[in-house]
Amino acid sequence: MKRPVRAKERTLRALERFSTAMLSALGYLPAAGLVLAAGALLASAGLGTIFPALRWPPLALLGSLAYDGMMAIVQNLSVVFCVGIAAFLARREKHQAAIIALLSYLIFLTAGHTTLEQLGRLAAADPALGLYGTGQAVVLGVQTVDMGVTGGVLLGFLTGWVYNRTSGKKFRPAPLRIYGGVRWTFLCMAGAAAGLGLAACFVWPPIQRAVDGLTGWIAAAGEVGLFLYGFLERFLIPTGLHHLIYIPFQFSSIGGTLTVGDQVYTGAYAVLMAEYSMGLPFSDGIRWMYTGFTKTFGYFGIVAAFIFCARPEKRRRTAAILCPLLLTATLASVTEPLDFLFCFLSPVLWLAHGVIAGTFMVLLDLCGVTGFTSGLLSSLAMNLSAGAGRTGYPVLYLLAAAEIAVYFMVFTFLIRRFDLRTPGREAPVTTEAPAGQEGGFPFRALVAALGGRDNIVRVDNCLTRLRVWVLDPERLDEKALRSLAPDGLSCHGREVQLVFGFDAEQLRAQLDQLLEKNALST
């Protein structure tokens, strides 16, 4: 009976460590999202027509710099995950793990490129689409297999695992000593990264072909196919495979063609824009352009649910973090900063997200909506200019309100039903200090509950948790620790985790300073 319990505990511990490692790599996205949203507003052509001052060249340049600069982060989240996860998992000298992760990632990319080149499988870029839809992408200037963030996540965990097991390696022969420690870790990871890059060129393409093979069935399956199209376009985002779903419909003959004189327009996007500019009725192929609907409207419901389900004392801060990311999604159709806040941590929410997105694409089609859906400002301007008769935009915006409500209700129910730790639902920080305690947090009581200053080996943090390693777990006062972090304590052997929400980093920095000054001796 004990073995299953221990196995369950190990599984839960591994899942918890996985989720916190993923979150640690996303700590900068809210700030990046704020700058990205500001840049999108300043660079918006729609706003420029309403407020001519935004067309002032220096202001337009500032908007482009902000937007393009932050998009460089969004477009390279794979390397962010790789470096962030490896540094988080490293038990010592985290900067060394981060450097090795970055070097390994470069080797991984180059190994993939070299393999494709030697096999003659490098895809040629389309003049209009680039490498979209080919299953390959240019990452940090290197063309390789498009794995989305999956490659970076795998390599980040592998680097952290290898680093913890090899960075202490010492060689006795004097000539070999220089290759011990972190250099030995690098050598191990160089081989592993090259092997992973090589393997990706053989393992990932068959998966891509299987996904790509669905497009014919989706096109012929009516509303069921449209639902699957919308579901997969959202659900596959972490893997990068979603490009293989929407690209064939939006930019090839699968999505429809339009012949006007000698000019042939191919793909749902080209057909839609031609029909719009010529004043023609919109054809059925517009259904494949509904992918922008959830990006523009659905995330209002998601963010509202996160804020509503946050602890009362955390709502303002949660809103301040999420609202810039919401603006980025709804104005610029850049949803990744929000997506990665919950896709790995709450798979049930991610599954529901895909289902709702696919369902509303079907509803748009059944209701005969033929309007623009991508980007709140741009779609509004284009729908108004095309007219209600051609677009059916009154019904579109009614369905938008319905989708927001459905997302809010479904996410609120799931978050509360499964007690999901979405942003703002971390345990509150105790702010009242005991008598004689200076400052806002009782650090002296915390150190005492951890068994005293001499029992603390190392202090660290992730996005929401203070993590402490101790010498002797028997000296822990779990009752006192729970009073300091109610409903947010986790003890696994010598590792103690206390949930403090977004205050964890500041608390860790203050605790480090006090420990260095030896101001908390017990």
TrEMBL record:
Domain PTS EIIB type-1: 440-521
Residue ranges constituting the PTS EIIC type-1 domain according to the UniProt record: 9-427
Membrane topology listed for this record: Multi-pass membrane protein
Stretches assigned to coiled coil: none
InterPro entries for the chain: Glu_permease_IIB, PTrfase_EIIB_Cys, PTS_EIIC, PTS_EIIC_1, PTS_Glucose_EIICBA, PTS_IIB_1
Pfam families: PTS_EIIB, PTS_EIIC
Sample GO molecular function, one term: protein-phosphocysteine-sugar phosphotransferase activity
Annotated localization: Cell membrane
Superkingdom of source: Bacteria
Active site, per annotation: 462 (phosphocysteine intermediate)
Record-annotated membrane-spanning stretches: 21-50, 70-90, 97-116, 136-163, 184-207, 213-232, 244-268, 288-310, 317-334, 395-415
GO biological process, one term: phosphoenolpyruvate-dependent sugar phosphotransferase system
One GO location term (cellular component): plasma membrane
Keywords: Cell membrane, Kinase, Membrane, Phosphotransferase system, Sugar transport, Transferase, Transmembrane, Transmembrane helix, Transport
Name assigned to this protein: PTS transporter subunit EIIC
UniProt source species: Candidatus Faecalibacterium intestinigallinarum
